[in-house]
Every structure is written in C-alpha cells, then in structure tokens.
Amino acid sequence: MLTAFARTPPLQLAEVLCLLCEKTRWPHLIGTAALAVQVVGSNWPKPHYTLLVTGLCRFQIVQVLKEKPYPVAQVEQLDRLEEFPGALQTREELGELSEQFYKYAVQLVEMLDMSVPAVAKLRRLLDSLPREALPDILTSIIRTSNKEKLQILDAVSLEDRFKATIPLLVRQIEGLKLLQKTRKHKQDDEKRVSVLGARVFRGPVFLGPEVPWGGQLGFSVLMEFFILEHVCYVFFLHRLKKMPQSMPEYALTRNYLELMVELPWNKSTTDRLDIRAARVLLDNDHYAMEKLKKRVLEYLAVRQLKNNLKGPILCFVGPPGVGKTSVGRSVAKTLGREFHRIALGGVCDQSDIRGHRRTYVGSMPGRIINGLKTVGVNNPVFLLDEVDKLGKSLQGDPAAALLEVLDPEQNHNFTDHYLNVAFDLSQVLFIATANTTATIPAALLDRMEIIQVPGYTQEEKIEIAHRHLIPKQLDQHGLTPQQLQIPPATTLGIITRYTREAGVRSLDRKLGAICRAVAVKVAEGQHREAKLERADATEAEGGREHSEDTEPQPIGDSGAAGLALPPEMPILIDLHALKDILGPPMYEMEVSERLSQPGVAIGLAWTPLGGEIMFVEASRMDGEGQLTLTGQLGDVMKESAHLAISWLRSNAKKYHLTNGGEIMFVEASRMDGEGQLTLTGQLGDVMKESAHLAISWLRSNAKKYHLTNASGSFDLLDNTDIHLHFPAGAVTKDGPSAGVTIVTCLASLFSGRLVRSDVAMTGEITLRGLVLPVGGIKDKVLAAHRAGLKRVILPQRNEKDLEEIPGNVRRDLSFVTASCLDEVLNAAFDGGFSAKARPGLLNSKL
Ligand SMILES: Nc1ncnc2c1ncn2[C@@H]1O[C@H](COP(=O)(O)OP(=O)(O)OP(=O)(O)O)[C@@H](O)[C@H]1O
C-alpha cells in the first residue's frame, strides 16, 4: 500500500514512532512509515533495545485490521515528496515561505558557535538537504514539545508544514538573542555560547512551557534563568526532580534554587533625583549636621548629572546617636530606593559577607546576597553599619571580603560562595558608618570618603528633642501634645543631669521614659474618669457605691494631683517631676570640687563616643618602695592598688600612717637619686611617653619656675616618687594630646598652686616645650562647654578649627591658643605662672 518511498532522517522517525507507540496508542491517525535498519540490544540485565529505522513517508491509518499480537492497519501514504520540488518552483507563495524558513534556519544556526563540530555539521546539512525536508528535520532538532511535534506531523501540505515550523524557529532565535544580550559584557562569552549552543540543540531543558519543576517554576522564571546565562544551573532542576524528597540534599538544592529565583537579577527601582526635594527632605528629617547634609547633596547632585556614577563610598564617622544611620535612611528615601542596614559590629567570619560554600552543613549565603533577597531589587541603599567594629578570626578576615564589595571596579562581578555565580553589585549604593577611623582597616579606609559627623551642642540637642524626638516619642506612646508638654528648661535638665553623650540616643531614651510614666497617668485618668461618670450616674439614681479604687492617691512622689480626679491636661514636666520619673540626677558638675588640691588639671580627650573632659591627677611621695600584689588580679585592679598606696603614702603624715601595718613595703635601693613614675588609668604607650616627656621638661625647667620636690630640691625626682592617674581607671586611654595637661598638673603639684577650676586644655608637647596641634577640637570644645568650663587652652595651630564651633559655644568660652608650654602655664594658673610674676611660694609639701 505504500507506493512512494522518501528517505526521511531516522532521528525524526524514531521519535515519532516512539510517540505513536508509547504515548498515544493510536489516538493519532497520522504516523511515519519506516524501514527497520538495525536492532541492537540484549535481554540482560534487563531488556534494552535500540531500533534504528529509516523514515519513508507520512501515512494515515484508514482502518485498524488487528491489534494483537502486533497492530496491523490499512494505511494510506500521505506525502509524495517527489512532487514537492515542482510545487516549490511553480507556486510563488510556497517559494516565499520556503525562502523565509531557510533564512530563519540559517540565522539560528549562525547564532551558535560554529567551532562546535555538531553545529558545523548542521550548517552543512542545511545547505545539502532539499528544502522540503527541512521543516521535519529542524522540528526534530530544536526544542519542541511532543504536542508541537505531532502538530508538525499532522501538517501534510508543505505550506502547512512551513507555516507551523516558522514560529518555533522564531521563538528559538528570540531566546538566543536575549541570552546574547545579557552575556555581551562577559569575557568568556564565546566559550559559553558554544556550550549553550550545543545545549539548545541537544540539551534536555530549555525554553518551553513544559519545565520539570513540579509546577512551581513558571515559564517566565525559567526564562529569567535562561537569559541570565545561568543555564547550567538548570541542571539542578533535573537533579531535584530525580531526588526523593526525604533526602537531605533535596532541601538544600531546593533552597538554592529558590534563592536563585528570588534574587533580583535584573529588577531595580527608578531613581528619583530631584536635588531640591532632597534638600527639603534632609532638612525636614534632620536638624543641624550642615556639613554632612551638604556633602550628601553634592553626592546626589553628581549622581543626577552622571548616571552610573562609580563614585566614592561615603563613610559617616562620628559618635553614637548623632544620626548617621538615619541620614543613610533619608538618602534612600530621597532617591526612592529600598534601604537595607547590614550590622557589621562583631562580624569576624568572612563567610558572613561572602557566604558558605554549599558543601558546608547549614550553609547560607552572605549578608550582601541575603540583603538583596530581602529588598528584592538590585539597586538598594545598603548601610554598612559600624565598619570600625569588624573583627578577625581564624575563619578569615571579613574586611578583605568587603574590599571586593566596595570596590566599584570589582563589584560588578561579586561572587558569593553559596551562590557560586557572579552577581552585579555595581548598582547598589553603599554607605558606611563608623565611630572612629582608627580601627577601620587601611585598605578599606582607602576606598571610602570619610565625612566626620561631630557631636551636638546643648542648644542643638534641645532643638532636635523638640522638633524630632518628642513628637516621635509622643506618637510611639499614643500621647498627644495636649496631654504631655516638656518645656525646653526640662529638656536642658535631662541633657545636663541625666545624659553625658555627644549624640541624642540617651536623651531619646529618657524622653521615652517620661512618656511611659505619663502614659500610665493618662490611662489611669481615663479609667478613673469613666468610673467617676458611672459613680455620678449611680448617685443620681439614689444609689451609693463604695469602692477602694475611688480613694484619692498621689501621682508619684510629687503628689501633684490626686487620682480621684483625672490629672489636669496637659501634664507639664518640670524639674521636680523629672526627678520623680528619672530618679536623682546621674551627673553633677564636680569640676571645682576636684580642683581644690594642687596636682589636678583638666584635659580634653577625644573618644569614639565624642569629646570628654578628663581629670589628670598627680601625687608625690618620699622614698621608693615595692608593692607585691597576688591573687590573680586584673590590670585595672592592680592599678587601683597602686592608686590606693600612692594616696596613703602621700597622706601618711596627715593620718599618722606607719609602715608597720599589713601592707608590705619592701625598701629598694635608691637609683642615684632617680625617682619612680607610676602611671595608672589604662594608658597606651603614647600617653605614657607623654608623661615621661612632661616630667623631663619640668625637671629641666624646675629652676626657671621654682619647682621643687618635697624636700625643697630643684631635682624634682630626688628621693621622690610620682604617681600620675587618669580617671576613669577602667577606660583605655591613649594619644599625645594629654601632654599639656600632664605638664600643668605636675607644675601644680611641684609649685603647690591650684590650677584654675574653669580651664581645660589639650595639646601635644615636645621636649623643647613646644605645643603641637591635635585632632577632634570640635568635640573637645563641646565637651568643655557641656562641663560648664569657661576657658579652653588649645595649640595655636588648631586656631583654624575654631571656625567649626557653633557661635553660641564660642561666645560662652574664652580660647587661649598656645605655641609653647610657657603660654599654657600662664593661662592655666590665676595670675600667670612665670617665675617673676609668682607671689611668695606656697608650701608645696603634702
Ligand atoms: N540631627 C538630627 N535630627 C533629628 N533626629 C536626629 C538627629 N540626630 C540623631 N537623631 C535621631 O537620633 C536617633 C539615633 O540616631 P542614629 O541611630 O542614626 O545614630 P547613629 O549615629 O547611627 O548611631 P550609631 O553609631 O550608634 O549607629 C535616631 O532616632 C535619629 O532620628
């Protein structure tokens, strides 16, 4: 019944035969006739045969004659390919279709890498085969579903065949185009195309609706995979499909694939770059911080002018609670970007940044990739909080991993160990914050632009409290300004007596405590009001109700109002109410009290927490002894013991203390008149050296200033030990800026004169008595102002830094700029310190 045979490629026929036999069981009446050429296989270990057939032609079943033991049917041959070449030439439309088809086929093949042998062979095949055979051949090679294949088989007329196959070719071409677009940046472009090319034609899973994802991955998602050239990771889909769900690896693979799908590979928000609006928003959100806001606006302006700015990473450095994090949040808000904060404090494992390799049990991606997953876009603002507190451990250096993240030249190719695929971080805007630059690794510091954010003055704090903190706290506690009022005088009271900070975080907390206390009163008041109303109503009805609750109760200790009546609104917090709520003041200014003895001076220190005033105390003792301490003591405790001994020794005569007691003084031989200098207060090396410098300078200038030791000798250390102490003893201190304070303190000790109680100072000294400039002037001056001091002695070369000081602080303080120690001492003592100017010597013996 088969009258004309045409040779069709065996591959296609084998597929169609299989389809017909296995899947369809005759629901399809059109099939392919084929000649079995070879049968290879065996029955062991289980039957496995490969059938090689040569295709002949399409046929249609007319009637099934019998089904067993094998189906026999009467069929009719459908295609007569020998007629087709003629038809192609005579019918214009068919000729055009065939030409179009050929062009698409060539285009598709040319998009592949011709260096792959299979592709080159295909190209040759395309030219050598008759045009009418191409639709069947290409359908069997390109990615098509079984359903689509059967549709082509059904297309008997050549015209239908071309028409049905062209869309399949176009779909494949578009897929490849998208793929190539995304990979054009990559260096290893060609290699990957070849791998991909081979897969497009022969690989198991590509574009197409029938993806083996158990219905959970849609076509578009797989498409995204595809175009993002992570084609090889589709491999995991196969693995997942084959794995039993109980296998631990199933969850791992699934999590991994879910992360791949959830990551915002090419999803971003559109930047809103309106500098005027940004300025208004920054001003509305933050009071003061002019320098920081100015720099942030400059940065945003440059971004507006130049897209894809590979700009510096901004790093805000300043004490805690000065608003660094919240400015970062405002930047995201002005740009209309997502905001994500990554806390780096205490991170000491580089896999925190870069993720674990998937071979680890419990492996996870790093914080960067996790953050991207959380925000769901690839251009968020990432705030790297506390970069100065990164640790180091055996698990690697997280700072080194951050280098890659922050380097605009490298971060378009950031590879997380877990993901193992490069992710482009170049669209992410990184802002870092730190309390100090001292502990930021140098390489990291080099990649960032540091913007100092100094602490606030008292006036600024009051403004911030009233503009931002109080409204925020009221809102958080469900209160209104009609219920609670905090006058500026009370805010100042909180700032000076209950907080000691450069920022406003404690102030915020104290305001929160006030709101909580008032919330209780307001809630109780409402409760009572309701009860009173009910009581009134009952009374009106003639009934009388007695309840313990209606007994009058005082509000707090202040007894401001009884609880029988609701408190009068608004509740005004004065200084008395403040004491009731927050307890007795935590900080009192004890400056003048502590300066009531010679040998004490106030220095100005800069710490990561802001500026602070620092007392330097000195005492001297006759003779030399040794103190043995046992009992596994820590450094601070040992220093305390030294302090105690020093105090007792210098007060021994006053209290009639002798050396026959419990403490063991072992007399040591005197070293040629050299005294001993004891330094306590957890000092760093630089500070210890400053103390030695100060002593040396004073010894060499002892005659000039009439400085003597306890026995009246100008050799200050002769038979004399000196103890210098820097409270608070448990806080580590270092740096050269205490030099002038140490000199002043010792000058006071050896002269027996009191240092002015309203003066603080800072400056490095040299052996020749020069005063060198130091850093952190603004914070230090603000600390002196906070402490209520009146005069600040600064190195002359720091005069320029005074410009940064707010006008009101400058007005309250008098500044003395000194270039040498002579000037420092003259300004630190009443009536100056020069030898001539000094009145009769005070007896300096203690
Ligand atoms: N100038 C300001 N104007 C308004 N609010 C401010 C200002 N400065 C700080 N705040 C508020 O103070 C609080 C603490 O600020 P934030 O958390 O940003 O401090 P930080 O400098 O990042 O501190 P840390 O270094 O501890 O992270 C926030 O509620 C913030 O809104």
Automatic annotation (TrEMBL):
Listed InterPro entries: AAA+_ATPase, ATPase_AAA_core, Lon_bac/euk-typ, Lon_lid, Lon_proteolytic, Lon_Prtase, Lon_prtase_N, Lon_prtase_N_sf
A single BP term in Gene Ontology: protein quality control for misfolded or incompletely synthesized proteins
Q: Name the residue ranges of motif: Microbody targeting signal.
A: 844-846
In the UniProt entry, which residues are flagged as the active site? 737, 780
| Gene3D superfamilies on file | 1.10.8.60, 1.20.5.5270, 3.30.230.10, LON domain-like, P-loop containing nucleotide triphosphate hydrolases
Cell compartments where the protein resides: Peroxisome matrix
Domain annotation Lon N-terminal: ranges: 1-173
Using the record's annotation, list all stretches that form the Lon proteolytic domain: 595-831
Name a GO CC annotation attached to this entry: peroxisomal matrix
Q: Which UniProt keywords apply?
A: ATP-binding, Hydrolase, Nucleotide-binding, Peroxisome, Protease, Serine protease
The residues that hold ATP are: 318-325
Please list the coiled coil stretches: none
Read off the SUPFAM superfamilies from this record: P-loop containing nucleoside triphosphate hydrolases, PUA domain-like, Ribosomal protein S5 domain 2-like
Q: Segment Disordered: which positions?
A: 528-561
Composition bias (Basic and acidic residues) maps to 528-549
From the UniProt record, which GO molecular function terms apply?
A: ATP binding; ATP hydrolysis activity; ATP-dependent peptidase activity; serine-type endopeptidase activity
KW Membrane (keyword) present: no
Q: What is its EC number?
A: 3.4.21.-
Question: Its biological function?
Answer: ATP-dependent serine protease that mediates the selective degradation of misfolded and unassembled polypeptides in the peroxisomal matrix. Necessary for type 2 peroxisome targeting signal (PTS2)-containing protein processing and facilitates peroxisome matrix protein import. May indirectly regulate peroxisomal fatty acid beta-oxidation through degradation of the self-processed forms of TYSND1.
The entry assigns this protein to a family as follows: Belongs to the peptidase S16 family.
Q: How does it assemble?
A: Interacts with PEX5. Interacts with TYSND1. May interact with enzymes involved in beta-oxidation of fatty acids, including ACOX1/AOX.
Query: Any idea what this protein is called?
Result: Lon protease homolog 2, peroxisomal
**Record lineage:** Eukaryota, Metazoa, Chordata, Craniata, Vertebrata
